[in-house]
């Protein structure tokens, strides 16, 4: 690995951002009466190159989230030796499912049975089952992906029957302009859906919710996986 002045300042900056983020996570967890160790930070690395991801690894982060398959592949290749956990958090397209099934450890944002069927059929046999989260459009936004809350149980049942997938939980993204009480209400809705699915017998352990601008509300409502980009790496260009 290169280590010039530039890389060490990048390391220092990402390290400092992560330190501040962990303090905010710890306070929100304390307010919620939760153990901060039950909350994982997924570093959302879209728009950033391999050197920034190396700084994140040096700071102790071990999981990355990418939105675009073609952008992610060179980074997956560049960081192969470090073996981070790769999450696909974009909208999965049917013509990219083979690459997703071969290269990623998790796929969030699944909202159609056809995508899940393809991922299961295309997951290589030497690999463990692909971890999956179903995206729910809790705010009912027309422009966002995700099933409606009413459609979620049927999709969860269909995915649970697929052999090469491991259904882990639910994912959501809220609109950017909500007040804190509105954020909490949206996240609470996702948690209620998770609890209902658990009560119907699904062994789910993941609530993928909360981004740089709303993760504190997400923690209050039970988030286990925060998807954090700009708070770690600065604003995207
Ligand atoms: C970009 C993105 C994030 C991270 O957003 P920040 O506001 O930069 O933390 C999280 N989740 C998804 C699905 C994203 O596309």
Can you tell me the CATH architecture? Alpha-Beta Barrel
CATH fold naming: TIM Barrel
Small molecules bound in the structure, each named once: pyridoxal-5'-phosphate
What share of the residues lie within helices? 40-55%
Low-confidence stretches: none
Tally of strands: 8
Strand content: 15-25%
Helix tally equals: 9
Note the run of SSEs as H and E: HEHEHEHEHEHEHEHEH
The biggest sheet amounts to: 8 strands, parallel
Integer-rounded radius of gyration: 17 Å
User: Can you tell me the overall shape?
Assistant: globular
Walk me through what this model shows:
This protein is α/β, with parallel strands linked by helices and 237 residues long. The chain has a single domain (4-232), classed as Alanine racemase (TIM Barrel). It contains nine helices and eight strands. It has helices at 5-31, 50-58, 69-78, 97-103, 113-122, 152-160, 180-199, 215-220, 230-233, and strands at 40-44, 63-66, 85-88, 106-110, 130-135, 165-171, 206-208, 225-228. An eight-stranded parallel β-sheet has the order 7-6-5-4-3-2-1-8. Helix 7 (180-199) links the parallel strand 6 and strand 7 (206-208). Helix 1 (5-31) crosses helix 2. Pyridoxal-5'-phosphate binds next to strand 8 and helix 9. Residues 44, 46, 67, 89, 173, 211-213, 227-231 line the site of pyridoxal-5'-phosphate.
């Amino acid at each position: 690995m290169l280590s010039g002045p530039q890389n060490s300042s990048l390391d220092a900056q990402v390290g400092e951002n992560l330190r501040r983020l962990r303090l905010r996570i710890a306070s929100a967890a304390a307010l919620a009466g939760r153990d901060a160790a039950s909350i994982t930070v997924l570093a959302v690395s879209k728009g950033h190159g391999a050197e920034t991801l190396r700084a994140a690894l040096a700071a102790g982060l071990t999981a990355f989230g990418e939105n675009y398959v073609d952008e992610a592949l060179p980074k997956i290749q560049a960081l192969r030796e470090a073996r981070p956990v790769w999450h696909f958090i974009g909208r999965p397209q049917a013509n990219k499912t083979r690459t997703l099934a071969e290269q990623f450890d998790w796929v969030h944002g699944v909202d159609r049975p056809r995508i899940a069927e393809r991922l299961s059929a295309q997951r290589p046999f030497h690999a463990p089952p692909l971890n999956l989260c179903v995206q729910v459009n809790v705010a009912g936004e027309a422009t966002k992906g995700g099933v409606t809350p009413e459609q979620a149980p049927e999709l969860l049942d269909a995915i649970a029957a697929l052999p090469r997938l491991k259904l882990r939980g639910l994912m959501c993204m809220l609109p950017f302009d909500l007040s804190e009480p509105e954020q909490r209400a949206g996240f609470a809705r996702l948690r209620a859906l998770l609890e209902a699915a658990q009560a119907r017998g699904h062994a789910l352990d993941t609530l993928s919710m909360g981004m740089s601008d709303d993760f504190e509300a997400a923690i209050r409502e039970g988030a286990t996986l925060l998807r954090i980009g700009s708070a770690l790496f600065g604003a995207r260009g």
